[in-house]
Amino acid sequence: MSRIRQQNVFAAQWTPDGAALGTTDLTVADNQVFGENVFSQAVQRQRLPKDVYKRLSQTLAKGEALDTTLADAVALAMKEWALEKGATHYAHVFQPLTGLTAEKHDSFYAPTGEGTALASFSGKELIQAEPDASSFPTGGIRATFEARGYTAWDPTSPAFILENPNGALLCIPTAFVSWTGEALDHKIPLLRSMDALSRSASRALKLFGKEVGRVFTTVGPEQEYFLIDEQYYFERPDLVTTGRTLFGAKPPKGQELDDHYFGSIPERVLACMLEAERELARLGIPIKTRHNEVAPAQYEIAPIFENSNVGSDHQQLTMQILQNVARRYGLVCLLHEKPFAGINGSGKHNNWSMGTDEGENLLDPGDTPHENLQFLFFCTAVIQAVNKHQGLLRASVASAGQDHRLGANEAPPAIISIFLGDELEKLFEAIEAGTAGQSTPESFLGLGTPVLPPLPMHGGDRNRTSPFAFTGNKFEFRALGSSMSLGLPNTVLNTIVAEAIDELASELENTLAAGGTLEDALRPIIQRSYAANKQIVFGGDGYSDDWHEEAARRGLLNLRATPDALPYLIDPRTIAAFEAYGVLNERELHARYEVFLEQYITKLNIEAETAAALARTMLLPAAVRYKAELLAAEEPGIASETGERIASFLEVIRALDSANLKENHPEDDLLEHAHYMHDVVFPAMGAVREVADRLEKEVADDLWPLPKYSEILFIK
Ligand code: ADP
Ligand code: MG
Description:
The chain is of the alpha+beta class and 716 residues long. It is 47% helix and 14% strand. It is globular and about 95 Å long. Adenosine-5'-diphosphate is lined by residues 218-220, 222, 288-289, 302-305, 351-353, 361, 458, 460-461, 471, 473-474.
């Protein structure tokens, strides 16, 4: 394993220790800036009394609860550090099920009663706070008599300072729990799933002769986003209210010319990116790459991977910083999955792997036969897990925004499949078939090769249509939406892979008990598992009609829309796996299922109401005025054509109004309601849009009230 990669896995373990990370291939951060606003391990070591630092590290390593004296000591050091950095307030930052970040600010200063104020911050305030939880979605977890929830410090994700022109805020990453102990957020299940995977993988590694302290899951998200001029943004009530344009005709020049992708970045945009990256660096977020994306005005930013928990917190922060900094440049950052119809939407590639505390990546094929065997074992586990839980994986990325991408002729398809790359797929096929190689007497799983051929590192790039691709030393789950939290998809991945690792490890224990070499014991297990699960493996074009037919023949799920996918959150197989690994119990899963359905319904309802209002109060009047002008100009021919268009516009608007009527909504059953939104309301909105987009091309430009795609996308 290369030094840099090793260092990355290492740095990913706990808090990003500025010194360790800053030496890798960062593009912006010079070492002084990197992590300067983070209460990192390095700062802790510097500021905490030696014994306190040692006790804190030990507590963290063992995952034990903090005692109050320890918490008081840490709080004191944290407060002093934060005050020096200009902080006046602190906030417990958490991720409620909305997927957004929530924070409540409290002042450090309390009045003394003598007309002065004293800065105080105790261990208790560090460890726990009680935000008014009643305004966050809980899916019925919280009984009305106990409406409170509390946030609890997550010491494994570093505290940091968020700056504002007029002050600074100490942010403390926290988990959000009900008083009955149930998870109300995305962090708790993620942490539980990381523990589960660590247990399973450590157990399996023993069979390969390795004792490790812990196995971490790692995540490196590639975030796509749009930057547009804020003037156009504020002139589009649909963008402001829903995050996407509900109207807008395709511009004469779209993304056909492919001249934007990897093209040079416009100066204002680059300036904005540089500042965002600098801010991120100060927060200890190691940004690695940036470039233009396929669509005009679309860009991508990717950090160096970190452990799933820290990486997920950092990803939330990245979205926040991108949006904040954009405004300083007169830009608005759009994170919606599909801001513009007919133009590529935005996703988030979730690069995922497992690494030991020694810095070994378990999905790295390595270059010795022993490493190869171990790699094949873990790779088999991933294939088995993804095939068994394809519906759940699809559900973990379902949302109203995602319905425009997944299954809608855009990357990637709604059918979950795995791309292994030619070399690896051939290898698995050969193991399954038991075909021994001829060339040498030595065998690698009976293949005739002592070691695996080197696999190309960027194999995934050759197949951009796969939702789940092996890319050399990690899997890339590409179906995440650009606005999503990393929490749920990674929780799902960790949990289902933990389950599969345990299943395979049990088999391996049994076969090893019968004697023979590791290789002999492993071969039949991989053979069986691959044969049973290879239906999920597909290397062809994921967008083609052929694949849809072939996938149906294979019996793979094709869950096109959110209401089709979400029920897999409460599938018996999901409940069994999540309960067995203590990640989420049945009630917590049900809560999520309900919250996500509710969010889907609410979002579509807001869109539909906005579309109807805009059509009636902005677009229809423009068309009517145009008709009047035509009549005044004695152009009865065009006027009558416009009149016909107006009549059909009114018709579809009325149909949308009727679809929006409360009494037409099946409100008693959430799932039925979600299907209604998808099957009735969504198409009604589409029908209004279709006529509106025609009108946009017909009505005099000076009368059209909304900025057009050609302006929004090409003026940078
Ligand atoms: P691509 O070829 O997909 O454009 P890169 O090589 O730039 O991608 O990497 C994409 C992302 O994958 C980066 O965020 C990187 O940190 C991340 N990544 C690399 N190795 C791992 C790993 N072992 N675990 C998780 N993420 C990883
Ligand atoms: Mg990628």
